[in-house]
Amino acid sequence: MSAPPPMPAVPPVPVHGPHRADCPWCGSLRLRPRPARQDPRQKAAPARSVLDRCRDCGHAFRNPPLDPRPAPPAVRAGVRLRHALAARAMLRRCPDPESWLDVGTGDADFPRTARTYFPYTSFDGVDPTHRVLRARAAERVEEAYVGRLADPHIASRLRARYDVVSLFQHLERVPDPRAELRAALRALRPGGHLLLDIADPRRLCAPPPHPAGLRAELEAHGCAVLTGPRDTRLVARKEESAP
Ligand SMILES: [Zn+2]
Q1: How far apart are CA 53 and CA 123, in angstroms?
Q2: What is the pLDDT of residue 189?
Q3: 50 C-alpha to center of ligand 1: Å?
Q4: Which of 69, 159, 173, 211 is at 20 to 30 A from 33, Cα to Cα?
Q5: pLDDT averaged over 10-residue windows placed end to end, the chain, 243 residues
Q6: Is 123 in contact with 142 (CB distance < 8 Å)?
Q7: 62: which strand partners?
Q8: How much distance in Å is there from the Cα of 87 to the middle of ligand 1?
Q9: Cα–ligand 1 centroid distance for 25 (angstroms)
Q10: How many Å from the N-terminal Cα to the C-terminal Cα in the chain?
Q11: Architecture of the domain spanning 73-238
Q12: What is the CA(143)–ligand 1 centre distance, in A?
């Protein structure tokens, strides 16, 4: 009797870049580092990733980016709760989407949760790591794309294909969040919904660090923003007349 095939190996994740001096959203050099809460057990730890905020556009981002190792169990539980709340929020606005793309999906934890609320929806995922291929093998997503959504070979295939595009803690991890946001809008069908959550999963009750220019950016691209500035997540609808 032959041994069962081994689990597919996951190649090493890409190494993140160094600390950056400019805002990834607008290029401004006027950054305000905010001291992350000190853990007394980690006083001897080397320089850690802190939340920087741009004084010009208000975009907040981890600097340097958090490494993509799995988060501690308590953080993962908080992320699952956020996923469930976001799926329910979308259910009220778009109860029966046919197709949904989760951007930066990783192991497709969000599609797995959202399926509970959207059993007839087809979920696809895109992620810079090969974890998304493992997620497809586990049938958490139907189609898997390795790379950035803004990569031309991915963007051209996914143009105007989706009823919903979701991004969880993704824009603050990519080097060019504006390009990634525009690619997300291009992947939406006219009338489709964008779901954006850029809150820090480690600080569940903190106000969302939405860039001040985000709403204007969405409206300039023919979207109606359906949530208020204090909402913990942003939902926008791409208008039928959007370019
Ligand atoms: Zn900025």
Answers
A1: 33
A2: 96
A3: 16
A4: 69
A5: 54 57 87 60 53 81 68 80 92 94 95 96 96 96 96 96 94 84 96 84 54 80 88 88 69
A6: yes
A7: 51
A8: 29
A9: 5
A10: 59
A11: 3-Layer(aba) Sandwich (3.40)
A12: 33
